[in-house]
Design a protein that fits this description.
By secondary structure, the chain is mainly alpha-helical. The protein is globular and about 60 Å long.
């Protein structure tokens, strides 16, 4: 059976100046739209603000996040036996990125507030969580803590300094700063990620490192929501990527 075509989106043109554009019909009377314009602009601004990360919230947790980052950096270097400068620089570069193994700790931190006047604080969870608003706050706090201090952190790691020494060097001044007043804060429930999904991501990353062939993981709900056309495009992209990776591998083998 042929699937019915989805309804075409309704395109609406608004002319806030009252004059119709050539070939485009106005969808509502110009005077009414002039009255609505300020309201629409306000809604757009509010939507933009709500999707951003609060600078005050970032400053509230920067001290604690900096200290956790030092612990994580020290542990990651030790557990993975990273000694060369390039390896250390790569680790530092990915330390605040939840998409990198060295930065996954970011998604384990939950932010909470005891009461409306209290400073935000963090608690470490046993599992990785979904990276939503609070995770983004932690990520920005980590970036703020390390900004301009990457060379210092590299030197400390090369010198085999303890996490306590690293905290004193990089976090002490941050922790001495007074935090700004924070308005209303809505605590978000910490949602743990599926461990199988994380394991699959690790497997894909390992295969990519070993073979140079990239793979992408799709969630079941994403696949179910795809149309036949979407699936064809996805399959074509995957096939092209695989062919390109295979060609690169063949070229390297010929050079050897």
């Amino acid at each position: 059976l042929k699937r019915p075509s989805p309804p075409r989106p309704l395109l609406v043109s608004y002319d806030f100046c009252g004059a119709d554009h050539p070939g485009m019909a106005s969808s509502a009377p110009a005077p009414a739209l002039r009255r609505l314009a300020p309201l629409l602009l306000l809604l757009l601004l509010l939507a933009h603000r709500s999707s951003g990360v609060s600078k005050e919230a970032v400053e509230h947790v920067t001290c604690e996040v900096c200290e956790v980052a030092m612990e994580e950096a020290s542990a990651y270097v030790r557990e993975n036996s990273i000694n060369d400068e390039d390896g250390l620089n790569d680790m530092i570069e990915g330390l605040c990125s939840v998409k990198k193994k060295e930065g996954r700790w970011v998604a384990k931190l939950d932010i909470f507030r005891e009461d409306d006047d209290a400073q935000l604080t963090i608690s470490r969870q046993p599992d990785l969580g979904l990276c939503k608003q609070e995770c983004l706050v932690v990520q920005r706090a980590c970036q703020a803590a390390l900004k301009g201090k990457e060379e210092v952190l590299l030197s400390l790691l090369q010198g085999k300094k303890s996490s306590k020494e690293m905290k004193n060097k990089l976090c002490k001044k941050l922790c001495a700063k007074a935090v700004p007043k924070l308005g209303k804060w809505k605590d978000k429930l910490f949602e743990a990620r599926d461990t199988k999904e994380v394991e699959t991501e690790d497997m894909i990353e390992k295969m990519k490192a070993e073979t140079g062939m990239g793979m992408k993981m799709y969630k079941r709900e994403d696949l179910l929501s795809m149309s036949e056309g979407d699936m064809e495009v996805m399959a074509a992209k995957e096939a092209f990527s695989s062919e390109r990776a295979a060609a690169r591998m063949a070229a390297r083998e010929e050079e050897m």
